[in-house]
Design goal:
about 375 residues, mainly beta, seven-stranded mixed beta sheet, about 5% helix, globular
Amino acid sequence: MRSDLLFIFALVLGCGSPNSQTSNASETTAETGPEPQTTSTSAPASTSSTSETTTGPDPTTSTGTETASTSTGTQTASTSETTGEPDPEQTARLRVVNGCDQPMWVLHQVGAGGGTLDAANQILLAAQGDYYDYAIPDIGLAATRFWPGFGCDDTGNGCAIGQSGGPPEQGFTCPPEGCAPPIDSKFEGTFGCLPGVAPTDCQDNPSAPGMKLPASDGWDTSMVDGFTVPYDVELLDDCPGGPDGGAIDCSELRLSDCPTAEDISTNQQFPALSAVDLRADHPTTRAPGGCYSPCGKLTYANWDNTPIYAPAAAEAEYYCCPTPPIGVEDCREGPVVDTQFVGLIHDKCKQVYSYAYDDGIGNWSCPAGTRYRVTFYCPQ
């Protein structure tokens, strides 16, 4: 991650103790590296800016699970694919779309002190083309992450893909085999305070005590931890600090491309790590559940992954790049840049960063109020 953009992402996204309840960590911890973990009770912490607006469906269960279907005229998930009518113009700052021909749940967490999002933490998009418009407060919302779940139960838990956990009080649970490693494909960031809001009314910035969120969004779709499904992000407004072409296209990403003999031996210092399988298979069904990054594979204990190391351990430090001791140039000149995983992400997701300090790409800053459309596709 570029050091001059650290103010955008000072997130602490669920990297916790091995036996706690949830496990949803993030690339935004790349400066210190993820801790070995299985689950953790912490939610995403702060950053410095991001997006949305509109009305959503009412909660359908006592756990806060929300359904965004097209069976009535009252939900926001009404699309041309399910109704034959054109989609209404997106006025929300964030729309998440189901690009898959099977049910998809959208899961989210707001970081500690990041504000309040008036939406259930698990929202069902039952059919391809269904979407949900998130009502991001005008005052801003810090450190919030959105990711997809597939093969879930009727509460949005027990997912075959995406069950990386979250606080129990927000309706998240972990199955008997434990939560999945936090390697989800995701959209995350901080939605800034809209210019029309009085500065004193803006959301407090949890990463800068005593300060308010700025009038800019900071966001990413990083794969520093790994990935689960293909996706794309389209910006509907001009953003000079955004990706080229106003879009991120990772729609050709495939779990079948996940390296099965990755060399993470630190130039043969650790020969046992010369041909490591980065696939994250479900521990009981053995079905594909995601693809670890080199750092994720070396540090996450979920699903009985072994061996694991601290990010600053000799086996992991040049793949996780905790700072200190590994500096920016040390990381960029280290063995991680030559891994198959980094090559895969650079090929299939050209504007997404794949390891800490990945040439400064992947962290974007847009004016507050920019509209984002995120589409998650079927796991393949």
